[in-house]
Specification:
The protein has 100 residues and is mainly α. It has two helices and no strands. 0% of the residues are buried.
Length: 100
């Protein structure tokens, strides 16, 4: 059996193409890993947005409750001991803007 001898040029080309193939495969794996990582981060951020929107809605509802005229009136009467004004205590003033 005769063994074929490879030339240095053929070996160098083989090594070069093997390194190119390994580099392409490594880049492909890195790209897939980054895509997967970005997908997970996107899902996490979407969940955070949902949570923050829900929190904003709850705070808006709380704000509406705290600023409701009915609640303000109750606090004024019960805690501040304010009373309704009488008709003779109210003074109506016409402004110059209404006369135009």
């Amino acid at each position: 059996m005769v063994r074929k001898k490879f030339k240095k040029k053929d070996i160098a080309l083989g090594v070069f193409f093997t390194l190119i193939a390994i580099s392409i495969f490594t880049f492909y794996l890195w790209h897939q890993a980054q895509s997967f990582k970005l997908g997970i981060e996107t899902a996490d951020l979407k969940n955070q947005v949902k949570t923050i929107k829900k929190e904003v809605e709850e705070l808006e509802a709380k704000k509406s409750y705290l600023l409701s005229l009915y609640r303000v009136e109750i606090i004024a009467k019960e805690e501040l001991l304010l009373k309704d004004s009488k008709k003779d205590q109210i003074i109506y003033v016409e402004s110059s803007q209404n006369q135009k």
